[in-house]
Amino acid sequence: MRPDGANDKELIARAKKGDMSAFESLVRKYEKPVYLLCHRITGAHQTADDLSQDTFIKAFLALPHFIDGLDFYSWIRRIALNNCFNFLKKWKRERPLAEEKNTVRHNFLSSPSESPPDAVQRGEMERKFRESFRALPDDQKTIFALRTFENMSYQEIAQALRIPPGTVMSRLNRARKKIKDQMAEYLRRS
């Protein structure tokens, strides 16, 4: 979810003049959406945490070059995306010995009206969806995350990734088809 950028101009101007509390306010305001973006792309908590911290360090260092009037969230999101892409490229080359595993936590009390069997079934569906999402190729996973979770338009995604809108649409279509096929297969077996 995108935070409201109402007082960003004032905070940015103060941060550019060396006011650390202003920059800390920007970090607090945007840390959650930046972390969620990194987590959706990498699928790992610790990696997303590291990448989001690195994003804010890079933003702080580049803040003097920030062009007044631009949308801060779009700018910081671009830095986060670049960090994620660089991480994924490096990760593919190095492949860690012990890959980080995501654990599924079922919240059996998620809804007062939901029975424990329904909660388990919902949890399994969510787990299968996350598994299907993580199995996507990086280019499709990124576009799917930006469209679905960040609610970006095709044009915004194309601009952010510096690719044609048609490429965005075709990769998103392939990602949706792969997830749909895997979910359909899972439901047939259930």
Brief synopsis:
Helix content is 72%, strand content 0%. The protein is an all-alpha fold and 190 residues long.
Short descriptors:
mainly alpha; 190 residues; 72% helix; Rna Polymerase Sigma Factor, Chain: A; globular; Arc Repressor Mutant, subunit A
Describe the structure.
This protein is mainly alpha-helical and 190 residues long. The protein has two domains: 1-95, Rna Polymerase Sigma Factor, Chain: A (Orthogonal Bundle), CATH 1.10.1740; 109-190, Arc Repressor Mutant, subunit A (Orthogonal Bundle), CATH 1.10.10.10. It contains eight helices and no strands. It has helices spanning 8-16, 20-42, 45-62, 72-94, 116-134, 138-148, 154-161, 165-189.
SSE layout:
Elements: H1 8-16, H2 20-42, H3 45-62, H4 72-94, H5 116-134, H6 138-148, H7 154-161, H8 165-189
Helix pairs in contact: 1-2, 2-3, 2-4, 3-4, 5-8, 6-8, 7-8
Q: What is the N-to-C succession of helices and strands?
A: HHHHHHHH
CATH architecture label name of the largest domain: Orthogonal Bundle
Largest sheet: none
Average pLDDT: 83
Q: How many domains is the backbone divided into?
A: 2
Global geometry: globular
Number of strands: 0
Supply the helix-strand structural class: mainly alpha
Roughly how many Å is the radius of gyration? 19 Å
Helix content: over 70%
Number of helices: 8
Oligomer: single chain
Here the CATH topology of the largest domain equals Rna Polymerase Sigma Factor, Chain: A
CATH class of the largest domain equals Mainly Alpha
User: What is the CA–CA distance across the termini?
Assistant: 33 Å
Beta content comes to under 5%
Low-confidence stretches: 96-110
Question: CATH-wise, what's the superfamily of the largest domain?
Answer: RNA polymerase sigma factor, region 2, helix turn helix motif
